[in-house]
Amino acid sequence: MSETGTISLTDYKAKLIGVLASAAGRREVGIEGPPGLTLSELISRLLVQVNKSQFADLLVDSATNNPLPNVIILLNDQDCNLFEGLRTKLESGTVITIIPVAHGG
To answer: What are the tens digits of pLDDT across the range 43-92?
Structure first.
């Protein structure tokens, strides 16, 4: 008897604030991925899913190829830097909020 391996997918939700929402054309993006996806991997999937150069330019710093100089990333309303930054492994149902550093108040 052989076993068939299946990969379960988890739903993550990215909330985009301000100019990021405008550039993406929507305020929320649903992203599927395996359980334990890192924040960095989620950002990569988000860029592919939105697929707009203006969005990528606003989100990722071109000099460092890192989003953190340009945005504040919250995981369930807490700064990702309180965890492991971009290496943080995400749990199912985690809400990721991405706020541009230059934002209105």
So the answer is: 999 999 999 999 999 999 989 999 999 999 999 999 999 999 999 999 98
d(Cα 51, Cα 24) in Å, to the nearest integer? 8
Fold of 10-100: Ubiquitin-like (UB roll) (3.10.20)
In our burial notation (b when 16+ CB lie closer than 10 A, e otherwise), range 17-56 reads bbbbbebbeeeebebebeeebbbebbbebbbeebeeeebb
CB distance 14 to 26 below 8 Å: no
Q: Where are the domains of the chain?
A: 10-100
For the entire predicted model, the pTM comes to: 0.88
